[in-house]
């Protein structure tokens, strides 16, 4: 049986940073130790800016497809902190690595994350619905990580697949989705956008447009309110007209009274003038 040994370290590692995630790719070791069972482990460390101290990454950091025992020379790492320095060690191991008195051979790479995209919108609320539209609202993400530029709402009929989804943009945290089918259930999600890009879509929530029966029932319930509002509007208008007429007549009466007083005063004044006396000589 031929002698086998541990593999050498991976080679030519490259990184692609996208906001708070990174993709690492590398070449296989030059020496495999005469074995075909080489796999890779990823060691993640979060470091201070001066690189003097580092600690293991938080548990919420995600590795796709996995952190240990990678058979492919590629890994996607997400949920990193924004504007943070990280060191990643890529170890190459095989079936005899654990029996070796020496640590596994590895290659290291340092990366610094960028500004984070906004966090997930926590929930959506239905404001109203009609036969062909649904109005939704939602709170701002708990961690906007910057100024929210707009939101993107994605929706599709529940009976169809996500491939058939439609996207609409909204400058505020409300949106009117129209052009829908009556009595149909829709799956809806929303995500926020900043200068760093889009955050992740919110959890899927279902909302339904009104059926014909629902619409007619809702209309019947609103009829008394509509009638009452209309009656109140008529009473208000009639009151305004009556007040206007009364005020107009009062102004006319006051003008006539003032004119009558002036005329009477003028007439009385002319009657009290001293008559001229003429003497015959």
UniProtKB/TrEMBL annotation:
Residues 6-116, 117-212 form the Fibronectin type-III domain. GO terms for biological process: axon guidance. It is found in: Membrane. It is a single-pass membrane protein. The chain crosses the membrane at residues 225-247. It comes from the Eukaryota. Keywords: ATP-binding, Membrane, Nucleotide-binding, Receptor, Transmembrane, Transmembrane helix. Its main location: membrane. One of its GO terms (cellular component) is plasma membrane. One of its GO terms (molecular function) is ATP binding. PANTHER family: EPH RECEPTOR A5, EPHRIN TYPE-B RECEPTOR 1. This is Ephrin type-B receptor 1-B-like. It comes from Carassius auratus (Goldfish).
């Amino acid at each position: 049986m031929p002698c086998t040994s541990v593999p050498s370290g991976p080679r030519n590692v490259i990184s692609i940073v996208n906001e708070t995630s990174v993709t690492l790719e590398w070449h296989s070791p030059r020496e495999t130790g005469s074995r075909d069972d080489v796999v890779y482990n990823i060691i993640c460390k979060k470091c201070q800016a001066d690189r003097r101290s580092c600690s293991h990454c938080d548990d919420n950091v995600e590795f796709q497809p996995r952190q240990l025992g990678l058979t492919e020379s590629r890994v996607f790492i997400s949920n990193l902190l924004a504007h943070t320095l990280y060191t990643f060690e890529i170890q190459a191991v095989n079936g005899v690595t654990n029996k070796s008195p020496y640590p596994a051979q590895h290659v290291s790479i340092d990366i610094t994350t960028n500004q984070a995209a906004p966090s997930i919108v926590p929930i959506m609320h239905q404001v109203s619905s009609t036969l062909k539209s649904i109005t939704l609202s939602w709170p701002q993400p708990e961690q906007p990580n910057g100024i929210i530029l707009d939101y993107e709402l994605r929706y599709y009929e529940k009976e169809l697949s996500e491939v058939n989804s439609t996207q609409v943009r909204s400058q505020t945290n409300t949106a009117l989705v129209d052009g829908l089918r009556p009595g149909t259930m829709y799956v809806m999600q929303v995500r926020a956008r900043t200068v760093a890009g889009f955050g992740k879509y919110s959890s899927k929530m279902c909302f339904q447009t009104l059926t014909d029966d629902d619409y007619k029932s809702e209309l019947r319930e609103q009829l008394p309110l509509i009638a009452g509002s209309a009656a109140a509007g008529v009473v208000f208008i009639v009151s305004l007209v009556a007040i206007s007429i009364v005020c107009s007549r009062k102004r006319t009466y006051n003008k006539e009274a003032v004119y009558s007083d002036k005329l009477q005063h003028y007439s009385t004044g002319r009657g009290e003038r001293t008559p001229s006396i003429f003497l015959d000589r």
